[in-house]
Hints:
By secondary structure, the chain is α+β, with helices and mostly antiparallel strands. The protein contains 14 helices and 11 strands. The protein has helices at residues 13-18, 21-37, 43-50, 56-68, 85-94, 103-116, 125-135, 188-202, 227-240, 255-259, 267-278, 280-290, 305-310, 339-358, and strands at 3-4, 72-73, 82-83, 138-143, 151-158, 163-170, 175-181, 249-253, 296-300, 312-321, 324-334.
Amino acid sequence: MRDGAVDGREIDREYLMDVSRRALSVLCAIVELYIRTGEPVASRQVARHCGLGLSPATMRNIMAELEDHGYLSRPHPSAGRIPSDRGFRQYVDSLPTRTVPPPVVRRELAERMNALRRELAEDIEWVAQLIAEFTREAGVAVRPLGDGPVLEAVSLVLLENRRVLGVVIADNGAVDKRVLEFDDSMTREQLQTLSNLLTCCLAGTPLHELGTIGARIGGVVDPEVGTELLRAAEHTARQLFSAEDKDIEVRIVGTENLLAASDFAEIERVRSLLTTLEDRSRMAAEFRRAFARGRTRVLIGEESETTAQGNLGIVATLYFRDHQRAGAVGVVGPRRMDYQRIVPVVEFVGDSLTQMLDE
């Protein structure tokens, strides 16, 4: 289905193929029951829900195998099972692609969008509000989310007192200058080597992706350059590339929908949720990273830093103008939100915004 953020663990597709479609049907039934009730699911419930005609013993064996392979977990030894992040991911990936909401929902959405439509250059909060109303989760609208300029070169100029002028040059001619400080004195030759290294490794990287490059520069720079140069590259990148997405507008509407959900009954979970939603800069950065590939993205639980903090799920899709990325819309909700119902709504709104902008 839609691209998701999968961590280093490869989804064990061979296991699901070996057990045939029965295991996937059972897994999907468990996920749907858990989405509906929020309670651990017992084998008897699954047997009634999936209609496969399996005996209780066979059903228990399949659920045990799904648990062994990491698709299910058991909160208590005597309780039923709940889907893991991996189980949710397999369920979401098994849903049909590019489906549409039911006709009644489509008509109502189209009417509301036409009634609320206004110049998108002035306001995007109404889009977040609309999605919040139709999904009963928190609606999110983010812009701009275009491809933007990319880095062309890095230049480091020696000043005095261990200070260095860092210059970032973009392919559109934009120049950003910052004064950097080093613990040790640097020679002009060392700075030239460092400039060449950063330029060679980072040229062509979109500027909006450079904000987090300092923490992972070791994965970009060839380790054979040596520990000392690598450490200097990390130190330079952290100071030179801003981690803030100040130019991105983020609107989140419908937080009260989440607070009303049983998933956030505990005060600590409420605090974690509010902290996550209030960090607009992190949300903007999450959207930037999410759309590195694919138009519609689904992030679940531990698959991203933002969703892990509040045990959340994010469904988001891009909208376009003149075939260029303009922004993104989506929802933030509990990990067990109804993806089968919500993904088509989000995609329909994204498609409608694209049509509006093209008109």
